[in-house]
Structure formats: structure tokens, C-alpha cells
Amino acid sequence: MRNTLDGSVVIVTGAARGMGEAHVRGLVRSGARVMATDILDTEGAALAAVLGTGVIYRHHDVRRSDDWQRIVDDTLSVFGRVDHLVNNAGVLSAGGITETTEAEFRRVMDINLIGCWLGMRHTIAALTATGGGSIVNISSTAGMQGYAGLGAYVSSKWALRGLTKTAALELGRHGIRVNSIHPGPISTPMLADVDTSTIVVGQPIARIGEPQEVTDLLLYVLADATYSTGHEFVIDGGATLGRVDPVVTTHR
Ligand SMILES: NC(=O)c1ccc[n+]([C@@H]2O[C@H](COP(=O)([O-])OP(=O)(O)OC[C@H]3O[C@@H](n4cnc5c(N)ncnc54)[C@H](O)[C@@H]3O)[C@@H](O)[C@H]2O)c1
Fold it and tell me: Helix (H, G, I), strand (E, B), or coil: what is residue 95?
């Protein structure tokens, strides 16, 4: 039987578009109330306007500690509790090791890693007061393997995977589960400038994923995966398994 998210309160970052938007819509369908945050205020406010009083949108740069404190305070004052945190905001950055500037590498780590660390730091007290709940950190298949030309992104997503495990160890005693989700290529604005035609070649499920497929997994991890913590939930069409075509062929 599915556990319920009905009436629970969830903070979702990077919620204005892409997978974050799908997560907000899925959570609302499940009866949750959502604090949706992003830096894209026009899109974020428009989303909240169509979804009704169960969704509040707030401007929130995940790199800023003061923004995080304001979001947690606002969530408590509007909804009275925090049950779950979804650290979804992130940026992609392409470039080889010698091409990527130090400033760009630091920017990616700041958003994709430190933003999630700040999110956990600022919500632990509220989650503990509610009696547990869970945190989901959105990593990537780039947190499961390397990708040439994506060093900053890969570093941030592997580090987030490691941080997830440490947080799970530290927070279990408060009843808080912490897991990571690792999507493969998903159809969102993040991939708008990426040539996706070659990405899925050799994948057992040879297509780009849809945001809703990740949302379905997120809802499961938040509500139903009650004996899982510190683990990776991979949703990638089998991309990280290897190639479907034989690597070794014989001459016979
Ligand atoms: N699309 C993919 O193929 C894919 C694959 C694996 C993992 N992911 C991860 O999934 C998450 C969602 O990505 P998406 O594909 O929906 O991309 P997206 O670009 O559509 O959405 C990312 C959101 O994060 C927000 N954001 C960026 N910087 C921010 C900041 N400093 N503070 C607050 N919000 C900020 C953006 O405004 C945007 O709304 C990201 O963490 C991404 O790394 C995406």
C-alpha cells in the first residue's frame, strides 16, 4: 500500500521549470503543500498561480544562507511544518578541465553542492521538530560515472552523492531519511542547447526520459521508501549499465 503525502509540507528548489515544476505538480496531485523556490520569478509565480493555495512561490538563490533561513521561516509561518526537502536546483556546465575557468568550476559547486548542503543545514531543525520525514538530493548519472567535458558538473554530483550518505548517517537518529536520485538524460530546458541525438545510443531504453517519470520515483522515495536511506535511486533508461552492443566479438 502506498504511504500518503496528503497534508505533508515539502520544500522544492529549482521549482519554476523542468523537473522541479513536474515535482511540484506531482506533489500537489498527491495532496502535499509545497514551498516552491527558484530564481526564475516570473515562471515560478505563474506556476503557483495555476496550482492554487497549496503552493507558495518564493525567490530563493540556493547559494545564499540568508535566503535559506527566510524560506524555512516562511514555510513554517505559512504551512506550520516541514516534512520533506527536495534539493533539485542545479546547473549544467560544459568544458574540459583546461577550458573551464576557476570561477565557473566554483559557480557549479556553489549551486549544485553547497546549495544542497545549506538546504540540509537549514531544514534539519524543522524536520526534526516534525518528527522525521526525508530529504532527497537530485544528483545525476554524472554522480555515478565520469563524463568527458563535464568535470565541474560531475564533481558536484559525485560530491552530492557522498554528502547524501554522510547526512543519512548523521540524521537517522532524528528519523530523517536522506537519499539521492540519479536521472539520466531528461527532457527539460537544461538540455535545450545539447545535441541529444547521440546521448541515448547504446542505452537499453533508447530514449530521453520525461520529467514525470522522475517525479513518480521522487514520490516513491519521499513517501514509500521507508527502509531506504543514504542510497542511490538511478533512473536512466539503463544508461549506466554499459552498452547494449557487444564490446567483444570473436573472429569465428
Ligand atoms: N535534465 C537532465 O537531463 C538532468 C539529468 C540528471 C540530473 N539533472 C538534475 O536535475 C535537476 C533539475 O534539472 P532540470 O533538468 O529540471 O533543469 P532546469 O534547468 O530546467 O531546472 C533547473 C532549475 O534550477 C534553477 N536554479 C539554477 N540556479 C539556481 C540557484 N542558484 N538558486 C535557485 N535555483 C536555481 C533554475 O532557475 C531552474 O529553474 C538539476 O539538479 C539537474 O542537475 C538533470
Answer: strand
In short, whether 138's Cβ falls inside 6 Å of ligand 1 is yes
Pick the CATH number of 9-234 from 3.40.50.720, 3.90.1310.10, 3.40.50.970, 2.40.70.10: 3.40.50.720
- Residue ranges of domains in the chain: 9-234
Distance CA 110, CA 176 (A): 24
pLDDT tens-digit series, residues 195-236: 888 999 999 999 999 999 999 999 999 999 999 999 999 999
Strand order across the 133-138 sheet: 55-59, 33-38, 9-13, 84-87, 133-138, 176-183, 232-235
The reply to whether ligand 1 has any atom less than 6 angstroms from the CB of 44 is no
pLDDT reported for residue 1: 53
Dihedral (CA of 49, 211, 36, 89) sign: negative
User: Can you tell me which residue has the cell 537530485?
Assistant: 138
Among 13, 17, 19, 236, the mutation site with the greatest number of ligand 1 atoms within 8 A of its Cβ is 19
Distance separating alpha carbons of residues 36 and 47, to the nearest angstrom: 9
Question: Which atom from ligand 1 is nearest to the alpha carbon of 89?
Answer: 24
- Mean pLDDT over 40-61 rounds to 98
Q: Is 147 a catalytic residue?
A: no
Which atom in ligand 1 lies closest to the alpha carbon of residue 21?
A: 16
The finding on whether 114 has its CB within 6 A of some atom of ligand 1 is: no
Q: Is the CB of 174 under 6 A from ligand 1?
A: no
